[in-house]
Design a protein that fits this description.
- This protein is α/β, with parallel strands linked by helices.
- The chain has a single domain, classed as Transcription Regulator spoIIAA (2-Layer Sandwich), CATH 3.30.750.
- Helices cover 39% and strands 30% of the residues.
- It has four helices and five strands; from the N terminus they run ββαβαβαβα.
- The protein has a five-stranded mixed beta sheet, with helices on both faces.
- It is globular, with a radius of gyration of 13 Å.
- The termini are far apart.
- 24% of the residues are buried.
């Protein structure tokens, strides 16, 4: 369901299949682990995600806010039109990046020195 890999100081989580109430705890456990280890810049790659339970959008938004409050960010990328519609219908107003690469570049643009560490 979730694969984690690092690109410099950014953790990329590849999600596939379905994100439902049955398996949301796996994502939350992974995000909690990253947060505890000060890995605060995250890209959630939704490219292979086929379905997102609309009831989970609030929990995703809460995690985004938590990472931002801790000095990082959780950016979503590569969502299908179907997933985008679910997120937008539920009021998630965070930017959805068209690709993982563009989300990674957004972190680069936010760095004061202009370089990833």
């Amino acid at each position: 369901m979730f694969k984690l890999h690092q690109i410099q100081d950014i953790s990329v989580i590849d999600a596939d299949g379905e994100l439902s109430r049955r398996n949301m705890h796996h994502l939350e456990d992974l995000l909690g682990h990253l947060s505890r280890h000060q890995q605060l810049n995250i890209v959630l790659n939704m490219g292979e995600l086929k379905h997102l339970d609309y009831r989970l959008v609030r929990r995703i938004a809460e995690r985004i806010i938590a990472f931002q409050c801790d000095g990082g960010d959780l950016k979503m990328a590569n969502a299908s039109e179907y997933i985008r519609q679910i997120l937008c219908a539920m009021g998630l107003e965070e930017e959805l990046y068209p690709s993982v690469e563009e989300a990674l570049l957004a972190f680069l643009a936010e760095e004061p020195s202009g370089a990833l560490q």
